[in-house]
Amino acid sequence: MAEINHQVGIKAPPEKIYELLTTNEGLSKWWTNDISGAGEVGALIQFRFNGGGPDFLVTKLIPNKLVGWKHSGNIPELWVGTEILFELKVVETQTFVRFVHSNWKESSDFMAHCSTKWAVFLLSLKDAVEKGTGKPFPNDIHIDHS
Amino acid sequence: MAEINHQVGIKAPPEKIYELLTTNEGLSKWWTNDISGAGEVGALIQFRFNGGGPDFLVTKLIPNKLVGWKHSGNIPELWVGTEILFELKVVETQTFVRFVHSNWKESSDFMAHCSTKWAVFLLSLKDAVEKGTGKPFPNDIHIDHS
Fold first, then answer.
1. Per residue, what are the HEC states of A4-21?
2. Å from A96 to nearest chain B CA?
3. Shortest Cα distance from B49 to chain A (angstroms)?
4. pLDDT (mean) for B14-18
5. What pLDDT is recorded for position A1?
6. pTM of whole model > 0.90?
């Protein structure tokens, strides 16, 4: 199984970041502006990009420490069976966000694309918390010309 | 073994990108401004960040298609034994850069940090080619406050 790993450090208490990982309003500040369904464990979050996009089931929540999602449905096809974990760790004056998108069947070009794109969105999360403005879709940074 | 995967698409012919992966002047436009030793297979490239940094042995070169490096020396410790591959693939009007940093002993927090940082540098490579100005160290985008 292949996986994507990232880590960013954000100058903010974990409570501020946790909110941006667990509410529709918070998630829409950094990933995509069209989000519904965020909630407690068992909630199905619908992330939409021009109408289509993935659903994730909320599987783990430890307030201000951990957020776990499991992909649900069939879009995108290569995400079926994958899981996402955000771990928050406070070190001195910053909170590290340790991100893992795991359980990919193989290390494909599409996985590589998603890896770079996740970095862009995690830096969008960082900016959303630190500067008040992230770059969620459709204002996200483009990593290619497709 | 763990690995880092990325992919960016650059609106330029592969020749322009290959030059930025194989010459001191080209590499200094996007990764770090202090580079020496770039050359043919067998060359030892020294990448320096405030004096210290990794060495990479050039192991594979297929003009305008592939660049392979093997880490040499002991800095950083967790990079010992790792390898880096850049593959260039032309699709219509863009050239995709498929990046793999492989052979990590484990998926550590440091590897996750490097994964995010590689995304930043590959976007710096993209900007260097497309806009003429990248963000090599010490002008690189910071992903934490360490």
1. EEEEEEECCCHHHHHHHH
2. 8
3. 20
4. 98
5. 85
6. yes
